[in-house]
From TrEMBL, chain A:
GO terms for biological process: phenylacetate catabolic process. It comes from Paracoccus thiocyanatus. One of its GO terms (molecular function) is phenylacetyl-CoA 1,2-epoxidase activity. The lineage of its organism: Bacteria, Pseudomonadati, Pseudomonadota, Alphaproteobacteria, Rhodobacterales. Signal peptide: none annotated. This is Ring-1,2-phenylacetyl-CoA epoxidase subunit PaaA.
From TrEMBL, chain B:
This is 1,2-phenylacetyl-CoA epoxidase subunit B. It comes from Paracoccus pantotrophus (Thiosphaera pantotropha). GO terms for molecular function: phenylacetyl-CoA 1,2-epoxidase activity. Keywords: Oxidoreductase, Plasmid. Its EC number is 1.14.13.149. The gene is paaB. Pfam families: PaaB.
Length: 329, 94
């Protein structure tokens, strides 16, 4: 998802745990929230910093594919909507960075790790947004997949993360619905517009399925994170839910999900569907997706170009504080 | 080396008549910018009518290990709750 392949510290059997660790696990099992200054295992803290940081980075990098269309939105209204949506993503990134900061890491440190390629962001944002229909597909599918993951995370064990997720989920529904509205308009438009919508679905379907991370059988970090309630559902559970929810929405649009093996399975009460190409997923995660260099390059450039401005405001604040101190003497 | 903008805690009054409530934190060079940033980060959908910002470094918090000594004494004082007292029904609502 927005935090795919988060490396978790190894699972410990109960008899290997210290009394502190046992008490901690029992608090989580009772559904208690863990708050910033409370004792927590180092592995819990590290895993959370990685996951929340990756999640925050995804929100920030996620502004880029949509930012690409702000100046080219087809109407002023669509432009205003897209601007509001991209601004929300910045807000979501900031909520999450401040949640991560309660764990003793600073936002600038996390940024530095991202810029050095030492922290990840979601693979989905390494795909290009080639047409206006991609704004529809991203809102509908990418934000749809994000909601699927973030709704259960509202119940996560770490208080500040849980509260950030609650705030984010309140705003996320707008993102998905505006995307679907873009798709509806195109799907009901001219044949060329409908083809554009179909093409966007074709390109974003499998990358969206990849957002949930590898299949459970290949997902080595799940068990400990689930015990700690940092992760609530398995990757495959969420992927299945996403497909079951999305297929009828595609049918309503009159678009075809690009999977010839997609079939309703009465017995399991869900769709059977094809797995995405996992070698492509690992390749994109490793930095070789179509837009990895552009995305990270844009972030580094924004950071470096903004340095004089950040420093200038800081210098002004220090001067003003000194003036106030002098006046008070 | 650039200096990181300090961290501020943000409190929002949701509606007239309610208390300000802690909603999160953010970075800003000074108090004025912290208010402006808080407006953009925490009130994009009419969440507030008033904002407070406080430098995070200025907050003094109780320690989690003091939870017992601080809060347990009040557990024993059940008579502070009105339900501790049985009032006969004939007396009527009290």
């Amino acid at each position: 998802m927005y935090a795919q392949l988060v490396k978790s510290e190894g699972t410990k059997a109960r008899e290997e745990m210290t009394p502190e660790e046992i008490a901690f696990q029992e608090r989580i099992d009772r559904g208690e929230k863990i708050e910033p200054k409370e004792w927590m295992p180092e592995g819990y803290r590290k895993t959370l910093v990685r996951q929340i940081g990756q999640h925050a980075h995804s929100e920030i990098v996620g502004q880029l594919p949509e930012g690409n269309w702000i100046t080219r939105a087809p109407t002023l209204e669509r432009k205003a909507i897209l601007l509001a949506k991209v601004q929300d993503e910045a807000g979501h990134g900031l909520y999450l960075y401040s949640a991560a900061e309660t764990l003793g890491v600073s936002r600038d440190e996390l940024m530095k790790l991202l810029h050095a390629g030492k922290m990840k962001y979601s693979s989905i944002f390494n795909y290009p947004t080639l047409t206006w229909a991609d704004m529809g597909a991203v809102g509908w599918l990418v934000d749809g997949a994000a909601i699927m993951n973030q709704v259960p995370l509202q119940r996560t064990s770490y208080g500040p993360y849980s509260r950030a997720m609650i705030r984010i989920c309140k705003e996320e529904s707008f993102h998905q619905r505006q995307g679907y509205a873009v798709m509806m308009k195109l799907a009901q438009g001219t044949p060329a517009q409908k083809r554009m919508a179909q093409d966007a679905l074709n390109r974003f379907w499998y990358p969206s399925l990849m957002m949930f991370g590898p299949s459970d059988k290949d997902s080595v970090h799940s068990a400990q994170s689930m015990a700690w309630k940092i992760k609530i559902n398995t990757n495959d559970e969420l992927r299945q839910k996403f497909v079951d929810q999305t297929v009828p929405q595609a049918e309503y649009l009159g678009l075809t999900v690009p999977d010839p093996d997609l079939k309703w399975n009465e017995e399991k009460g869900g769709y059977d569907f094809s797995e995405p190409d996992w070698s492509e997923f690992f390749d994109v995660i490793a930095g070789n997706g179509p837009c990895n260099k552009d995305r990270l390059g844009a972030r580094v450039k924004a950071w470096e170009d903004g340095a004089w401005f950040r420093d200038g405001l800081m210098a002004h604040a220090e001067k003003a504080a000194a003036r106030r101190a002098q006046a008070a003497e | 080396m650039s200096k990181e903008w300090p961290l501020w805690e943000v409190f929002i009054r949701g509606q007239h008549g309610l208390n300000h409530r802690h909603v999160g934190s953010l970075h800003a060079p000074d108090a004025e910018m912290a208010i402006m940033n808080a407006r953009d980060v925490y009130t994009r959908r009419n969440e507030g009518v008033s904002i407070w910002v406080v430098p995070s470094a200025q907050i003094t918090a109780s320690s989690p290990s003091d939870k017992g000594p601080l809060f347990e004494p009040s557990n024993a004082k059940v008579y502070r709750h009105p339900t501790f007292f049985d009032i006969p029904e004939e007396v009527g609502h009290m």
